[in-house]
Design goal:
Length: 231
């Protein structure tokens, strides 16, 4: 984007954030991917991740005051996972706003969920540095204002690995075994093919993800689906 287009898009984004930066360079940095140059948003992403987790934890502590720590942790994990942050980044209009290197741009980086989710965390970190925690927390609460927080969320918030583990523990069976059976793609854009095995059933299912962890979750989800179809 040209400098003029950058300035206009940043103005529009600040309006959507309902925060005008005292230091506009922070917003520019938050929207700069490491492929663009050495001065990029990863440190802001690190900071924003912590701010986001604290703000969401406080929100859940207040809204779900009767829930146990484990339930709160599962709901929080569901709210701050990449898929959720990617959706929020799209709603905020971050697509097309992140500065990328030419190679990343050609490979579709402007629409990559991980890049947009990371940029959102970096923006939250930038707001925190620019105006403090209360302003950043207000932003986070606005981002999640359409989420209907209720005790019933705790069951839905269980990730597939946790749900599968609890299902096996109820039967007093061994925990599932996860193995990476293959990887593809460049080092910064790998895809992991992961196998999940239940030894007692001699059954395996596979899943694919952009990290080993997401691959394990996909494999666990596939195993849960198989168990539902083969009770």
């Amino acid at each position: 984007m040209s400098a003029v287009r950058d300035a206009k898009s940043h103005e529009a984004l600040q309006a959507r954030l309902q925060h005008r930066f005292a230091n506009p360079k922070l917003l520019e940095l938050a929207l700069t991917h490491r492929s663009f140059g050495s001065n990029h948003n990863e440190r802001l992403e690190f900071l924003g991740d912590s701010v986001l987790n604290l703000a969401v934890s406080r929100m859940l502590y207040t809204a779900l005051h009767d829930q146990a720590e484990g339930d709160l942790s599962r709901v929080r994990a569901n709210l701050v996972k990449q898929d959720t942050l990617h959706s929020l980044a799209l709603e905020l209009g971050l697509i097309g706003m992140v500065r990328l290197g030419e190679g990343e741009m050609r490979s579709g980086g402007q629409q990559r969920p991980s890049i947009l989710a990371d940029a959102l965390e970096a923006v939250i970190g930038a707001v925190f540095l620019d105006a403090g925690f209360e302003v950043a927390q207000t932003l986070v609460l606005r981002l999640f204002d359409k989420v209907d927080l209720s005790p019933t969320m705790t069951a839905a918030a269980k990730d597939p690995k946790t749900e599968l583990q609890e299902w096996l523990q109820a039967k007093r069976w061994q925990l599932p075994v996860y193995r990476v059976v293959g990887t593809t793609g460049a080092a910064h854009q790998q895809t992991f093919d992961v196998e999940c095995e239940i030894p007692e059933l001699k059954q395996t299912q596979r899943g694919i993800g952009s990290s080993r962890r997401s691959g394990e979750q996909a494999a666990a989800a596939a195993m849960l689906q198989w168990l539902r179809e083969n009770p």
